[in-house]
Request: fold
Amino acid sequence: MENGYSIGIVGATGAVGQELIHLLYERGFPIRELRLLASARSKGKTITYKEHSWTVEEATPEAFDGMDIALFSAGAGITKSLAPEVARRGCVVVDNSSAFRMDDDVPLVIPEINPEAAKEHQGIIANPNCSTIVSLMALYPLHREFGLKRFFASTYQAVSGTGAAAISELENQVKALVNGQPVVKEVYPHQIAFNVLPHVDVFLENGYTKEEMKMQNEGRKIMSLPDVKVSCTCVRVPVYRAHSVSIQAEFEKPVDVAVAKAVVDAFPGSELCDDVERLCYPMPIDYSGKVNCGVGRIRKDTAFDNGLSLWVSGDQLWKGAALNAVQIAELLHERGWVGVSA
Ligand SMILES: NC(=O)c1ccc[n+]([C@@H]2O[C@H](COP(=O)([O-])OP(=O)(O)OC[C@H]3O[C@@H](n4cnc5c(N)ncnc54)[C@H](OP(=O)(O)O)[C@@H]3O)[C@@H](O)[C@H]2O)c1
Reply:
């Protein structure tokens, strides 16, 4: 690989797509050619980043001929039909949607946790759910030390997790409310400004939402822990960027808070932010645009015998989506798990 890869970003006009452009350049990914794709609505639009400028193309199967890696962030619907077509053309897809995450032949990868899984790819690699990634960046090092048995999680999810339109909705609702104007609701079923919604994604038969079940289903697959039990409540909060999660976890072995703090801090992609005497704990405002997830409020849980209670904040647009996808591309490049076109 001398001159870099031909890369495509599908969903380049969206919230995650914009971060993918930024991170590919800022992390120095070897790019020979970058092409930006989206729906027919965006065809012909111009996107600029620093000295670069692109005309957005429509994401048709033919557009991927000769491309090496396609980073998808365009939603599960279009991805289900388009990604297999793209993979068939010899281009490796790294997908941010939920379309293929639980498929047996699709690796679900967090590079700090299960990099080897990516080696088995058959053309599609899935990026896990954003709240799941942020939570596992704290839980996985604790699991390695104490053996994870089960956990409860309550999320505090930023509006940018819903995409570009939701960021505008929060902004417009705040403006309307401070000016005494009526609130317009288009993205969320209820007012999100100055409110919290205990509802992320669609409701299922069991009363949980799809997003809540991802924490257990995807967590099991990523950590190779088929029996781990998870009960999760997902909440949308009027925060622009970075998700936070309150976690109560039970372990097989007795826990030690000092050891827990040390293993979390030593884990790549996580950092300890835990000094309550100085009022230091992770907050979304401090973890937006940060590579690491912050973990704090680590304490012995009062309800579980071998339990820890903790709090984690992480940028869901970065580690929960674009950064994790670029890290997967870096892994493919470093280990030679992707071909390169002439
Ligand atoms: N936002 C997050 O924090 C986050 C985190 C993890 C995973 N994800 C996942 O990433 C994906 C994108 O999320 P987002 O937040 O970036 O959403 P977004 O801001 O709404 O952007 C959606 C993007 O998808 C494109 N798109 C829609 N329909 C398409 C089609 N038929 N063909 C090609 N492109 C199409 C849009 O293009 P147009 O502009 O042309 O409509 C736009 O570029 C979703 O699957 C989401 O679940 C998001």
Notes: The chain has two domains: 5-128+321-335, 131-315. The domain at 5-128+321-335 is CATH 3.40.50.720 (Rossmann fold).
